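Entry 14. Ran structure prediction on the chain below.
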Amino acid sequence: MKQAKYDAGYILTSLRFARDLFGQQGRVSAIELQLQDGVDIRQAQADIQKILGNGFTVKDRYEQQEDVFRIMEVEKLIAYLFLTFYSFSSQLQHHRFHLHADYRQERRRAYPA
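Output, structure tokens:
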């Protein structure tokens, strides 16, 4: 995660202190909603955005934490590439062993002791 980005732009404090600091007593800066199962998230997001207007931003949990989910995707890709390489390497080593064993058998047959 781009920790410096968050360190430079955010502080953690109580809601009461933040409201007092910015003179926003009784106001809300965010609302989280949980939708019922089966609800189309994109459609609900569009409907809520239409109701609230352009003065508000409506994001799903993936859009709120883009950096985290992007890092998770990169980690999955790296794990996949590592396991693919490891599997390929193991198969290659196994194949080389059999080629070497076959070569030794052929050599024994060609040049018996």
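Residues 100 and 106 are 10 Å apart (CA to CA). Will compare against last week's run tomorrow.
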